[in-house]
Amino acid sequence: MTMPARTYFSAPISAAEKREFEPFLNHLVDTAFSVIMPKFLSPIDIEDKDNGTPVTAADKNAEQRMRELIETHYPEHGIFGEEFGVKRPRGNGTVRYRWILDPIDGTRSFITHSFLFGTLIALERDDGAGFRPVLSAIAHAAANVRAIGSRDGTVLRLENRWSSFSRPARVRECPGLSEATLLTTSHWTSAEQKGGAEMQKLIDAVKLYRTMGDCFGYFAVATGGADIMVDPDLSYWDVAALLPVVEGAGGVLTSKSGGNPLKELSAVCTAGAIHSEVLELLRS
Fold first, then answer.
1. Are the beta carbons of 188 and 199 closer than 8 angstroms?
2. How far is CA 166 from the centre of its chain?
3. Rounded to an integer, what distance in angstroms lies between the CA atom of residue 111 and that of residue 43?
4. Would you list the DSSP string of 47-69?
5. Ordered DSSP codes for 80-102
6. Burial class of 96 by CB neighbour count within 10 A (0 to 12, 13 to 18, 19+)
7. Class of domain 15-168
8. Segments of 106-163 assigned E as strands
9. How far, rounded to the nearest angstrom, does the alpha carbon of residue 249 sit from its chain's CA centroid?
10. Cα-based angle 283, 242, 266 (whole degrees, multiple of 5)
11. What is the distance between the alpha carbons of residues 6 and 263, in angstroms, rounded to a whole number?
12. Which long-range contacts (CB under 8 A, 24 or more apart) does 172-175 make?
């Protein structure tokens, strides 16, 4: 069943929560960048995890540093990270807030010296019906750029020697699939993908197709650089951080079936108007 274009899977954030947590979220991003960048484009040992995906000291150390900051500033908060799993807060009380950490999304990009790897961070809140993300970051250390998003808007921030700005991020209008740019992490026939021949129908329908994915694909849609990003298989620490950024920028992100991507761990992300058409092709 196709979800309405403005169905939100992130939860709203209050002004007080935003004042409290957005500066800390930026601090976490800066901390991850400070650990990751000295190891980028340098020789580094690569391990294979049990699921066959690579991991490096940059992944582990960045997450560890972020965990230490959270435990210092918000010991009552939970943590769920890709590298070190779930951490319950101190005490036996109910956990209202939880941080989701993916220190390097796109480790394959990182170890092959591609600049498209990123850091994903989300803050979730449990209002009694389970955790939902309220604030998140998609951040790219190599470009020193980040998108910080919540239901009430997404901000794009860039800092380098030549340019510095902070401005609202919005998806772009796309009149139809024949004018769309589609991104994926890798081609659907590769071993790491779980898509099928239906992906080829979507590829054939669009104007431009590129395998420039991982979290960059969602960053590109949210900032108006692309129109569609598809991932047939994701982890929870991926999806949680994508939702506030994409939805705050006016985009739509559902599972491949059109449902809740936090429960069905896949993603179809669009600027909105073409979402139903994309889902229909993927079901065919």
1. yes
2. 19
3. 9
4. EE-TTS-EE-HHHHHHHHHHHHH
5. EETTTEEEPPSSSSPP-EEEEEE
6. middle
7. alpha beta
8. 118-126, 131-140, 145-150, 153-159
9. 13
10. 30
11. 18
12. 172/224, 172/225, 172/227, 172/271, 173/271, 173/273, 174/227, 174/270, 174/271, 174/273, 174/274, 175/273
Q: Which CATH number fits domain 177-283: 3.40.50.300, 3.40.50.720, 2.60.200.30, 3.40.190.80?
A: 3.40.190.80
Q: Which two tokens stand for residue 165?
A: 């700005």
Distance CA 157, CA 74 (A): 25
Q: How many residues are recorded in the chain?
A: 284
- Rounded-to-integer distance, Cα 195 and Cα 210, Å: 16
Q: To which residue do tokens 């079901």 refer?
A: 283
Residue reference for tokens 């590298």: 83
Would you kindly state where each structural domain of the chain is located, as residue ranges?
Answer: 15-168, 177-283
Please report which residue ranges of 97-213 form alpha helices under DSSP H. Answer: 107-111, 198-205
Paired residues of 118 in beta bridges:
105
pLDDT one digit per residue (tens) for the chain, 284 residues: 344 447 899 999 999 999 999 999 999 999 999 999 999 999 989 998 888 788 999 999 999 999 999 999 999 999 999 999 898 766 666 789 999 999 999 899 999 999 999 999 999 999 999 999 999 999 999 999 999 999 999 999 999 889 899 999 999 999 999 999 999 988 887 777 666 788 999 999 999 999 988 999 999 999 999 999 999 889 999 999 999 999 999 999 999 999 999 999 999 999 989 999 999 999 98
- Going by C-alpha positions, the residue among 264, 281, 58, 57 that lies closest to residue 178 is 281
Residue 132 · residue 124 · CB < 8 Å: yes
Separation of CA 84 from chain center? 18
